[in-house]
Design goal:
Blueprint (H helix, E strand, L loop, with lengths): L9 E4 L16 E13 L3 E12 L2 H21 L7 E15 L4 E17 L5 H10 L4 E8 L4 H25 L4 E14 L8 H6 L11 E14 L1
Antiparallel strand pairs: 1-2, 2-8, 3-5, 3-6, 4-5, 7-8
Length: 237
């Protein structure tokens, strides 16, 4: 586990009136406010990749038809690899006219249409990520992005980070209290923000995938789950 604590401290005597929008907790002593971030690193258990097909044709109808046929083969391959249908989601279908610039005549020249279809695939066996990428390219996928890695359920990791953050906050608040001549602290307020941290997706060109005889190498590394808590303590004697 790797922790990272980021203290932001502000000490002030608080005596603010109550308002309709926010309830202010009254205190008689000075208040220390700390913002602490803690994270826990662990091995991921989910890989997410994007796979799709881009098709060119002279007409929009033909581009869409060609693309539909090719994408149907890619989706069938994804299912044949054992991916549950609920883990396959269409993320974009696009159709655009394609133009080339004619430098001689200094004008755009119409070349046809490009249709594309992209799906996001969740793999629950991350050891198979490289083999799946290769299989999708062999099945006709021309657009690949990812993978990105995450944790399916990081509840326990966040609880661990939350506990560490509160312990760090109390320890630091006690230090401030001691420096200011006070013997104890009283918790007034706690707020939390969730951290979503993951490695950047690995990008790999289609040419590199097609030329490689071995399965595409994939290193999942570690991902972080964490929280940031902001706490206010009153210094007391």
């Amino acid at each position: 586990m790797i922790r990272k604590a980021i203290p932001l401290a502000a000490i002030a005597a608080v005596s603010a009136p109550l308002s309709a929008a926010e309830v202010q907790i009254q205190s008689s002593g000075p208040v220390v406010e700390l913002t602490i971030s803690e994270s826990v690193r662990q091995a991921p258990d989910i890989a997410t990749i994007g796979a799709g097909v881009s098709s060119e044709a002279a007409t929009a109808v033909q581009a869409m038809r060609t693309n539909a046929d090719a994408m149907s083969g890619v989706i069938a391959k994804i299912k044949a690899l054992g991916v549950d249908e609920d883990d396959i989601q269409t993320t974009g279908i696009n159709l655009n006219a394609r133009y080339d610039y004619d430098r001689t005549n200094q004008k755009q020249v119409f070349r046809g249409y490009v249709a594309s279809n992209q799906v996001r695939v969740t793999l629950r066996d991350i050891d198979a990520t490289g083999r799946v990428l290769d299989a999708l390219v062999a099945a006709g996928a021309t657009d690949i992005n990812g993978p990105s890695f995450s944790i399916d359920d990081d509840t326990a990791a966040k609880a661990q980070a939350r506990k560490a953050a509160m312990e760090t906050a109390r320890d630091q608040a006690m230090e401030y209290a001691g420096w200011a001549g006070y013997s104890d602290i009283r918790l007034l307020e706690v707020s939390e923000a969730i951290q979503y941290n993951a490695p950047q997706p690995m990008m790999r060109t289609m040419e590199a995938v097609q030329e490689s005889a071995a399965s595409t190498p994939v290193q999942p590394g570690m991902v972080s789950s964490g929280v940031t808590v902001t706490v206010k303590y009153e210094m007391v004697q």
